[in-house]
Amino acid sequence: MSCLILHKSPIILLVGAGPTSSSVIQAAAMHVVTVVAADGGFQSAQAAGLDVALVVGDMDSQVGMPKSQTFAKIDDRDTTDFEKCLRVCAADIFLGVGFLGGRLDHQLAAFSALLKEPKPVVLIDEHQLVFVVPTQFHLELEAGAPVGFYPMLPVHVNLQGVQWPLNDAEMSPLGQIATSNKSTGELLTLKVDGPGLLAILPVRYLGAVLEVLRG
């Protein structure tokens, strides 16, 4: 279904209403051009001192939003506020904070949204970052850095540069997974036959991950 794009920017920070801190939001904002809030995430973005270009959602969490603030009220009960943001914003890459942790059902919904969004989306909290692995991905990591990979859908994967590599492995939620792995210090190399594999890496690699995903 086509939709009206309300905001366009090379890289957009989406701020959700989930558990986070002003320091995490401010650190994420250093990598972006524009900030968009998912409903109640506006209060978190405002507390972090950020200028919010657009607030998107059903607005059921808004209290005292300035009259001058641009917003898009979308009364669609079949999608989350996170998905609404992705629907009305266009970017080369999205960075999200305030979507991990807290209620497990909200976090699972965020992971589902990652699979449905064709553009790269990286979600972060204070310790980790999560994204859907593209068909080919390479990244320099320090030896011993913790890494994890979880298949949300069945995928075939080649994974090198880790303590427990995989060669043309068939991965699925009911079969092979690759959590609790570690980098060997060699180049992390991934090949996947389609979208469906989540990567979980330390948040200190955010800048490098964004650079690789942007191509």
Question: Could you please describe the fold and organization of this structure?
Answer:
The protein is built from five helices and 16 strands. With 215 residues, the protein is of the alpha/beta class. The protein has two domains: 8-126, Rossmann fold; 136-207, Jelly Rolls (Sandwich), CATH 2.60.120.320. Strands 5-4-3-2-7-8-9-16-11-14 form a ten-stranded mixed sheet, with helices on both faces. The chain has a four-stranded antiparallel sheet with strand order 10-15-12-13. The radius of gyration is 17 Å and the shape is elongated. The two termini are 28 Å apart.
The CATH class of the largest domain turns out to be Alpha Beta
Question: What Rg is obtained from the alpha carbons, in whole angstroms?
Answer: 17 Å
**What is the structural class?**
alpha/beta
User: How far do the termini sit from each other?
Assistant: 28 Å
The CATH architecture of the largest domain comes to 3-Layer(aba) Sandwich
- Count of separate DSSP helical elements: 5
Poorly predicted regions are none
Beta-strand share of residues: 25-35%
User: Which homologous superfamily in CATH is the superfamily of the largest domain?
Assistant: Thiamin pyrophosphokinase, catalytic domain
Shape: elongated
Helicity, in percent? 10-25%
Sheet with most strands: strand arrangement: 5-4-3-2-7-8-9-16-11-14
